Amino acid sequence: MTKEVFTLRSPDGQKIELPIRKGTTGPDVIEIGKLFKECGVFTYDPGFVSTGSCESKITYIDGKDGVLTYRGYRVEQLAKHSNFIEVAYLLLYGELPTSDQLCQFETSITRHTMLNEGMLRFFNGFRYDAHPMAVVSAVVGSMSAYYHDTMDINSVEAQEIFAHRIIAKIPTIAAAAHKLTAGQPFIYPRNDLKYAENFLRMLFAVPAEEYEIDEVAVEALDLLLILHADHEQNCSTSTVRMAGSSGANPYSAIAAGISALWGPAHGGANEAVLRMLKEIGSVSNIQKYVEKAKDKKDSFRLMGFGHRVYKNYDPRAEIIRKMCHKVLIKMGHLESPLFDLALELEQVALNDEYFIKKNLYPNVDFYSGIIYRALGIPTSMFTVIFAMARTVGWVAHWREMITDPNGRISRPRQLYSGPRERDYLNIEDRVRDHPVG
Ligand code: CMC
Question: pTM higher than 0.90, yes or no?
Answer without folding.
Answer: yes
